[in-house]
Q: What sequence folds into this?
């Protein structure tokens, strides 16, 4: 049995590709964690089943029961109505429309549940326990299946009128660009996310471009952002060009953020950020070329320190805050 | 002589096209005002001369002396380093590069001087005395020669790390669009400002499009956003199309703001906003099509109430705040 001073929070990060669950102590330490594929394509009821199964499993594996859990904090990709615990829409969980996830989990588990946006949670995690510790004005961008954002202003999460501010991935940077899953056109997400990187690489291979990528997968559709990253590290030109293209758009998105927020730090998290400098170096160059000098000279553009754990840690910390004052 | 309970503040709004000066009392009431063309093309020294001449003139006309003035608050278009009182750069005042305007005015007038961004001043003016009164989270956009922005969060102006946040006009919405005066490409300003409207209308006439616009001016170069507005009101199709195009881009910029800030209100000010619903109606439609439903349903998109005075009033109020605590 896990030894803890007080009851742990069960924090869950529901992304377009994977569900991560963790037991987190009051101070933000992860006690144990688990991960499952989301299988968003199988529909929201299946995803909810996977979440509740995951909850039961992590509790059992830790030799605990639900009574030992302080509450559940879910960080999910999408437009979240935190006040009412509803996922109103989620570009990467296609059939999630006004799903009252909080009530569903409360009813089935009998625990307190808090629901928030995943990138907001990650921003808060980095601010309290990661690379953004003590940085009062920072912007967090998660580049993964989609692109999300979280804004910390004066040391507090800025969530706006309905609690859904920070949708930086759905900032248009190409007015007449390709249609995004959110319905809008030319969003940062459709141009620079992991999905965009995979799509572009697949297009290049289908066009007949010679690349290592073809050797790394059985069929072109299997190419992911991770495959592109592996090929680029081996010096593959097509893969490098694909990453540079995403970095170009990410750089434009960040230049916008620099001009709009004049932040002290931009933190890049999410699975695609694991490419590190290969993505960040060309993106920083674009920021320097495009944003005003004064705010550019003040901003650090860095990788997340907590990596996959930032959302989990932030969600747990926000649950605690929310218990006290409803987490804004 | 003007009768006032206490010394008035001399507030000055320096835009790309005109300089407005006003004596403002503590409570934000404009006692008297004057306006001059900026003549930015004649160079910054000439503009500064016009500012100081304007100051002398308004003081003389009000039968006051400089000793009767509490201080000077300048709201200028550009990237302002408020802490040091420097205009670092200004897309619509082309040769203004690191001009220490505060020190120049202090030296020549011997009064306290505060320097801030014009759209920030206007946002604050609308929040304290205009249509945004009591709206804790609002975004102000000025559409004029250029496009500027001011962000009010939790009832306070958000100015970022260096005091230059809110450059909403220099948010890229067309990655490979035309080059903006700021050096960046596809900025909202180059696509939807008054200058953009005039340029587009001139292009249409030069292409040989038949339009009332040709009757309203002696030569095509004389067409301004105002001319376009007049022609559109008379039902001129070319003028209406030109305004719709600007509204399309303004709508995309506002959709971005809705997705990023989830604000309660977006206030549109600046000379071009005087077109009213002709510009705002199609722009609102674009927001509805492009931004997420939840934040779209919460936001009011309205015209400035203080019109040309919002910057002046905001600058004066910020001077008072700054006297007390350095206006952030």
A:
């Amino acid at each position: 049995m896990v030894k803890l001073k007080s009851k742990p929070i069960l924090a869950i990060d529901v992304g377009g590709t994977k569900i991560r669950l963790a037991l987190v102590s009051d101070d933000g330490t992860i006690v144990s964690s688990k991960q499952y594929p989301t299988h968003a394509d199988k529909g929201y009821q299946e995803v909810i089943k996977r979440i509740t199964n995951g909850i039961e499993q992590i509790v059992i594996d830790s030799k605990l029961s639900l009574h030992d859990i302080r509450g559940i904090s879910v960080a999910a990709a999408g437009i979240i109505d935190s006040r009412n615990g509803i996922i109103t829409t989620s570009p990467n969980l296609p059939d999630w429309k006004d799903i009252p996830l909080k009530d569903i989990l409360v009813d089935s588990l009998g625990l307190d549940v808090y629901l928030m946006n995943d990138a907001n949670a990650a921003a808060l995690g980095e601010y309290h326990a990661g690379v953004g510790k003590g940085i009062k004005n920072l912007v967090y961008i998660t580049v993964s299946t989609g692109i999300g954002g979280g804004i910390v202003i004066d040391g507090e999460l800025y969530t706006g009128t309905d609690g859904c501010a920070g949708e930086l991935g759905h900032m248009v940077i190409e007015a007449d660009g390709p249609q995004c899953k959110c319905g809008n056109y030319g969003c940062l997400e459709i141009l620079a996310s992991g999905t965009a990187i995979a799509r572009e690489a697949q297009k290049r291979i289908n066009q007949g471009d010679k690349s290592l990528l073809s050797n790394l997968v059985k069929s072109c559709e299997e190419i992911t952002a991770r495959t592109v990253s592996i090929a680029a590290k081996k010096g593959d030109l097509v893969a490098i060009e694909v990453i540079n293209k995403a970095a170009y758009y990410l750089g434009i998105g960040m230049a916008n953020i620099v001009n709009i927020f004049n932040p002290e730090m931009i933190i890049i998290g999410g699975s695609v950020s694991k490419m590190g400098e290969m993505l960040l170096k060309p993106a920083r160059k674009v920021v320097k070329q495009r944003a005003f000098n004064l705010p550019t000279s003040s901003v650090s553009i860095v990788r997340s320190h907590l990596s996959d754990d930032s959302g989990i840690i932030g969600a747990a910390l926000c649950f605690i805050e929310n218990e006290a004052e409803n987490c804004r």
Summary: The CA atoms of residues 48 and 307 of chain A lie 24 Å apart. Chain A touches chain B through 53 residues (CB under 8 Å). Residues 237-261 of chain A form the longest helix (25 residues).
